[in-house]
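Exam revision sheet. Question 4 asks you to relate a sequence to its structure. Input first:
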Amino acid sequence: MGISSSRPSRRITKQDNAILNMKLQRDRLQQYQKRIQVVLDRERDIAKQYLEKGDKERALLALRKRKYQAQLLTKTDSQLETLEKLTQSIEFALVEKDVLFGLQQGNQVLKEINKEMSMDKVEKLLDESAAGIEYQNEISEMLADTITNAEEDEIEEELAALQREEIAKRIPSVPTADLPEQETENAEEESEEEERVSERNRGRRQPALAA
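Answer key, C-alpha coordinates:
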Protein backbone atom coordinates (compact mmCIF):
# COMPACT_ATOMS: atom_id res chain seq x y z
CA MET A 1 0.00 0.00 0.00
CA GLY A 2 1.56 3.28 -1.10
CA ILE A 3 2.16 6.20 1.16
CA SER A 4 0.28 9.33 0.18
CA SER A 5 2.56 12.29 -0.39
CA SER A 6 -0.21 14.86 -0.34
CA ARG A 7 -0.17 17.38 2.46
CA PRO A 8 -3.24 18.83 4.09
CA SER A 9 -4.16 22.20 2.62
CA ARG A 10 -3.78 25.24 4.84
CA ARG A 11 -7.02 26.39 6.40
CA ILE A 12 -8.25 29.70 5.05
CA THR A 13 -8.48 32.10 7.96
CA LYS A 14 -10.60 35.19 8.50
CA GLN A 15 -7.44 37.19 8.01
CA ASP A 16 -6.97 35.63 4.56
CA ASN A 17 -10.55 36.53 3.64
CA ALA A 18 -10.09 40.07 4.91
CA ILE A 19 -6.93 40.54 2.82
CA LEU A 20 -8.69 39.14 -0.25
CA ASN A 21 -11.68 41.45 0.22
CA MET A 22 -9.39 44.41 0.73
CA LYS A 23 -7.57 43.65 -2.53
CA LEU A 24 -10.87 43.32 -4.38
CA GLN A 25 -12.00 46.69 -3.03
CA ARG A 26 -8.68 48.23 -4.08
CA ASP A 27 -9.10 46.89 -7.62
CA ARG A 28 -12.65 48.24 -7.86
CA LEU A 29 -11.57 51.63 -6.54
CA GLN A 30 -8.77 51.91 -9.10
CA GLN A 31 -11.23 51.09 -11.89
CA TYR A 32 -13.66 53.71 -10.59
CA GLN A 33 -10.94 56.35 -10.34
CA LYS A 34 -10.25 56.04 -14.06
CA ARG A 35 -13.92 55.99 -15.09
CA ILE A 36 -15.22 58.76 -12.86
CA GLN A 37 -12.70 61.30 -14.15
CA VAL A 38 -14.89 61.64 -17.26
CA VAL A 39 -17.82 62.52 -14.98
CA LEU A 40 -15.76 65.05 -13.00
CA ASP A 41 -14.58 66.77 -16.20
CA ARG A 42 -18.13 66.96 -17.54
CA GLU A 43 -19.44 68.51 -14.31
CA ARG A 44 -16.74 71.17 -14.52
CA ASP A 45 -17.84 71.94 -18.08
CA ILE A 46 -21.45 72.22 -16.88
CA ALA A 47 -20.38 74.68 -14.19
CA LYS A 48 -18.66 76.80 -16.87
CA GLN A 49 -21.80 76.72 -19.03
CA TYR A 50 -23.91 78.00 -16.16
CA LEU A 51 -21.39 80.75 -15.43
CA GLU A 52 -21.66 81.91 -19.05
CA LYS A 53 -25.43 82.16 -18.51
CA GLY A 54 -24.92 84.04 -15.24
CA ASP A 55 -26.46 81.22 -13.17
CA LYS A 56 -24.06 81.08 -10.23
CA GLU A 57 -26.25 78.81 -8.06
CA ARG A 58 -26.40 76.00 -10.60
CA ALA A 59 -22.71 76.38 -11.31
CA LEU A 60 -22.09 75.88 -7.59
CA LEU A 61 -24.37 72.83 -7.57
CA ALA A 62 -22.32 71.18 -10.33
CA LEU A 63 -19.08 71.94 -8.47
CA ARG A 64 -20.50 70.67 -5.16
CA LYS A 65 -21.50 67.39 -6.79
CA ARG A 66 -18.04 67.15 -8.32
CA LYS A 67 -16.43 67.79 -4.95
CA TYR A 68 -18.58 65.17 -3.25
CA GLN A 69 -17.57 62.52 -5.79
CA ALA A 70 -13.89 63.37 -5.56
CA GLN A 71 -14.06 63.23 -1.77
CA LEU A 72 -15.70 59.79 -1.90
CA LEU A 73 -12.73 58.49 -3.86
CA THR A 74 -10.18 60.11 -1.57
CA LYS A 75 -11.82 58.89 1.65
CA THR A 76 -12.22 55.36 0.33
CA ASP A 77 -8.60 55.25 -0.79
CA SER A 78 -7.45 56.43 2.63
CA GLN A 79 -9.64 53.86 4.39
CA LEU A 80 -8.24 51.04 2.25
CA GLU A 81 -4.70 52.04 3.18
CA THR A 82 -5.64 51.79 6.86
CA LEU A 83 -7.31 48.41 6.38
CA GLU A 84 -4.31 47.13 4.46
CA LYS A 85 -2.06 47.87 7.42
CA LEU A 86 -4.51 46.24 9.84
CA THR A 87 -4.94 43.06 7.81
CA GLN A 88 -1.18 42.56 7.64
CA SER A 89 -0.76 43.09 11.37
CA ILE A 90 0.28 40.17 13.58
CA GLU A 91 -2.36 41.40 16.00
CA PHE A 92 -5.16 40.87 13.48
CA ALA A 93 -7.27 38.97 16.03
CA LEU A 94 -7.44 42.10 18.20
CA VAL A 95 -8.74 44.31 15.39
CA GLU A 96 -10.72 41.69 13.47
CA LYS A 97 -14.11 43.28 14.16
CA ASP A 98 -12.85 46.72 13.13
CA VAL A 99 -11.41 45.35 9.89
CA LEU A 100 -14.57 43.45 8.95
CA PHE A 101 -16.71 46.48 9.74
CA GLY A 102 -14.39 48.67 7.68
CA LEU A 103 -14.61 46.32 4.72
CA GLN A 104 -18.38 46.35 4.99
CA GLN A 105 -18.40 50.14 4.97
CA GLY A 106 -15.98 50.13 2.04
CA ASN A 107 -18.31 48.00 -0.05
CA GLN A 108 -21.17 50.38 0.69
CA VAL A 109 -19.13 53.42 -0.33
CA LEU A 110 -18.00 51.69 -3.53
CA LYS A 111 -21.66 51.13 -4.37
CA GLU A 112 -22.28 54.86 -3.88
CA ILE A 113 -19.33 55.71 -6.13
CA ASN A 114 -20.67 53.36 -8.79
CA LYS A 115 -23.98 55.23 -8.76
CA GLU A 116 -22.15 58.54 -9.22
CA MET A 117 -20.62 57.39 -12.52
CA SER A 118 -23.88 57.66 -14.43
CA MET A 119 -23.49 60.24 -17.22
CA ASP A 120 -27.29 60.41 -17.50
CA LYS A 121 -27.46 61.83 -13.99
CA VAL A 122 -24.71 64.30 -14.79
CA GLU A 123 -26.65 65.60 -17.80
CA LYS A 124 -29.69 66.05 -15.56
CA LEU A 125 -27.88 69.04 -14.09
CA LEU A 126 -28.67 70.79 -17.39
CA ASP A 127 -32.27 69.55 -17.57
CA GLU A 128 -34.73 72.46 -17.41
CA SER A 129 -37.80 70.22 -17.17
CA ALA A 130 -39.78 69.76 -13.95
CA ALA A 131 -38.17 66.35 -13.40
CA GLY A 132 -34.71 67.79 -13.95
CA ILE A 133 -35.26 70.65 -11.52
CA GLU A 134 -36.66 68.23 -8.94
CA TYR A 135 -33.53 66.08 -9.28
CA GLN A 136 -31.29 69.15 -8.90
CA ASN A 137 -33.15 70.17 -5.73
CA GLU A 138 -32.73 66.66 -4.30
CA ILE A 139 -29.00 66.73 -5.00
CA SER A 140 -28.71 70.19 -3.48
CA GLU A 141 -30.43 69.06 -0.28
CA MET A 142 -28.32 65.91 -0.06
CA LEU A 143 -25.07 67.80 -0.52
CA ALA A 144 -26.07 70.43 2.05
CA ASP A 145 -25.69 67.76 4.75
CA THR A 146 -22.55 66.25 3.21
CA ILE A 147 -20.25 69.11 2.18
CA THR A 148 -18.21 70.55 5.06
CA ASN A 149 -17.49 74.25 5.53
CA ALA A 150 -13.87 73.72 4.47
CA GLU A 151 -14.99 71.92 1.31
CA GLU A 152 -17.50 74.70 0.59
CA ASP A 153 -14.66 77.23 0.76
CA GLU A 154 -12.69 75.14 -1.74
CA ILE A 155 -15.73 75.02 -4.03
CA GLU A 156 -16.09 78.82 -3.87
CA GLU A 157 -12.40 79.16 -4.78
CA GLU A 158 -12.89 76.80 -7.74
CA LEU A 159 -15.87 78.84 -8.89
CA ALA A 160 -13.84 82.05 -8.64
CA ALA A 161 -11.10 80.41 -10.73
CA LEU A 162 -13.66 79.47 -13.40
CA GLN A 163 -14.98 83.05 -13.39
CA ARG A 164 -11.47 84.39 -13.94
CA GLU A 165 -11.05 81.99 -16.87
CA GLU A 166 -14.28 83.24 -18.45
CA ILE A 167 -13.28 86.88 -17.98
CA ALA A 168 -9.86 86.20 -19.51
CA LYS A 169 -11.55 84.73 -22.60
CA ARG A 170 -13.63 87.87 -23.15
CA ILE A 171 -10.77 90.35 -22.80
CA PRO A 172 -8.90 90.73 -26.13
CA SER A 173 -5.20 90.15 -25.86
CA VAL A 174 -3.05 93.28 -26.20
CA PRO A 175 -0.03 92.85 -28.50
CA THR A 176 3.01 93.67 -26.45
CA ALA A 177 5.76 92.54 -28.85
CA ASP A 178 5.16 95.47 -31.24
CA LEU A 179 5.02 98.16 -28.58
CA PRO A 180 8.76 98.99 -28.46
CA GLU A 181 8.95 99.30 -32.26
CA GLN A 182 5.81 101.43 -32.37
CA GLU A 183 7.11 103.71 -29.64
CA THR A 184 10.36 104.15 -31.59
CA GLU A 185 8.48 105.09 -34.77
CA ASN A 186 6.36 107.61 -32.87
CA ALA A 187 9.47 109.13 -31.29
CA GLU A 188 11.12 109.47 -34.70
CA GLU A 189 8.03 111.17 -36.18
CA GLU A 190 7.88 113.60 -33.24
CA SER A 191 11.58 114.39 -33.65
CA GLU A 192 11.17 115.12 -37.38
CA GLU A 193 8.16 117.36 -36.70
CA GLU A 194 10.08 119.29 -34.03
CA GLU A 195 12.97 119.79 -36.47
CA ARG A 196 10.65 121.16 -39.19
CA VAL A 197 9.05 123.58 -36.71
CA SER A 198 12.49 124.69 -35.55
CA GLU A 199 13.59 125.41 -39.13
CA ARG A 200 10.48 127.50 -39.79
CA ASN A 201 11.08 129.51 -36.65
CA ARG A 202 14.71 130.21 -37.64
CA GLY A 203 13.53 131.39 -41.04
CA ARG A 204 11.16 133.93 -39.46
CA ARG A 205 13.90 135.35 -37.22
CA GLN A 206 16.36 136.14 -40.14
CA PRO A 207 16.44 139.94 -41.08
CA ALA A 208 15.17 140.95 -44.50
CA LEU A 209 17.92 141.64 -47.14
CA ALA A 210 18.36 145.14 -48.41
CA ALA A 211 17.12 145.77 -51.89
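Marking note for examiners. Confidence is low (pLDDT under 50) at residues 207-211.
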